[in-house]
Amino acid sequence: HQEHHQMTDHIAHHAARSLVFPLPVPGSQPKRTPLPWDAAHPGRGLGFRDVDTDPRAPDYRLREIAIGSEA
Predict the structure, then answer these.
(1) Helix, strand, or coil here: 6?
(2) What is the DSSP letter of 35?
(3) How far is residue 60's CA from residue 39's CA, in Å, rounded to a whole number?
(4) What residues does 66 pair with on adjacent strands?
(5) CA torsion 65→15→28→6, rounded to 10°?
(6) What angle do CA 44, 47, 64 make, to 5 degrees?
(7) Higher model confidence: residue 31 or residue 71?
């Protein structure tokens, strides 16, 4: 996935970062290809998202979790 946030009417859509390889910012390149490998910063751009909700309220809490300290 590429990190992406979009609203469709009243529905929020969220896609997290990739766990496999970092991708460029959506729409910044004509083709979705991985960013070149950077051995000095192997975890940059990688991560995942934790989603927490309260069933009594229509609220979602998103927490971005980076892989490594340089994401």
Answers:
(1) strand
(2) P
(3) 35
(4) 47
(5) -120
(6) 115
(7) 31
Q: How confident is the model at residue 9 (pLDDT cuts 50, 70, 90)?
A: very high
DSSP 58: S
Confidence class for position 70, pLDDT limits 50, 70, 90: very low
36: number of Cβ within 10 Å = 6
Contact present, 45 and 3 (Cβ < 8 Å): no
Contact 19, 46 (CB under 8 A): yes
Report the pLDDT value the prediction gives residue 71, as an integer from 0 to 100: 40
Structure tokens at 42: 């192997």
Distance CA 18, CA 15 (A): 9
Q: What is the pTM of this model?
A: 0.50
